[in-house]
Each structure stands twice: as C-alpha cells, then as structure tokens.
Design a protein that fits this description.
With 65 residues, the chain is α+β, with helices and mostly antiparallel strands. The chain has one helix at residues 55-63, and strands at residues 25-27, 31-33, 36-43, 47-54. It has one domain (14-63). Strands 1, 2, 3 and 4 form a 4-stranded antiparallel sheet that branches.
C-alpha cells in the first residue's frame, strides 16, 4: 500500500444524492490513459458518470504524510 487519503477520493454532488440508494457512489473499475485515471461510477442507483483523476497528483497526495 502506498498510502491513504485523509478525505474520500469522491463524494456525491447534490445532483447525485437522489435515487434508489441515496448518497452513494459505486466505483466500477478504472482505466489509466497517459497520466489520467478514468473512473466510471454509479450515482445513487440512478445514473452512470465518469470521473477523471490526475494520476501524479493523486500519487503525491498518497505519499505525503
């Protein structure tokens, strides 16, 4: 394990909080393209979206104390 974040990687926006299971994001795997992580996720069992995460920035946050 490289490290942990002090806060969640993702949290639902107000628009993503309504649905069958409210206030929940479901990650659905991930793809790496160059230095970006493409993370598909489900929101409250009602929609599917993608998050794009800067990989070097994430690794720097994981490695910092």
């Amino acid at each position: 394990m490289l490290g942990t974040l002090t806060e969640p990687l993702m949290t639902p926006t107000p628009q993503e909080r309504e649905g069958y299971v409210p206030n929940v994001l479901y990650s659905c795997g991930a793809l790496i393209h160059e230095e970006t992580i493409a993370l598909p996720y489900g929101c409250a069992d009602s929609t599917i979206r993608f998050a794009f995460i800067d990989l070097p920035g994430l690794l720097a946050r994981l490695r910092s104390p």
